[in-house]
């Protein structure tokens, strides 16, 4: 199972090992989706000596970032009168 804590921790270990092998002064950067990102951050906070922010940087994947942005746009437009304005202007049905 990909989203298991053990599998995510193993992936973190492998990532640090590979980056250290090629360039020990570089920080590993990884983009991932939201469920795995949450597990990774919990592990990072639990084991800062092995997987601290000085060794690994996790970036929330593009899909979830865009979904959050579009959700926020929807919330801003809700009850703003925008939909009735567009409808009454015969721009859209």
How would you characterize this protein structure?
There is one protein chain. Helix content is 62%, strand content 11%. The chain has 5 helices and 2 strands; from the N terminus they run αβααβαα. The chain has a two-stranded parallel ribbon. The radius of gyration is 20 Å and the shape is elongated.
Q: Reading side by side through the largest sheet, how are the strands ordered?
A: 1-2
Task: State the order of secondary-structure elements, H for helix, E for strand.
Answer: HEHHEHH
The counted number of beta strands is 2
Biggest sheet layout = 2 strands, parallel
Beta-strand percent range: 5-15%
Shape: elongated
Q: How many helices in DSSP terms?
A: 5
What structural class do helix, strand and pairing data support?
A: mainly alpha
- N-to-C span: 46 Å
Poorly predicted sequence stretches spanning 5 or more consecutive residues: none
Q: How helical, in percent, are the residues?
A: 55-70%
Can you give the mean pLDDT?
84
Rg? 20 Å
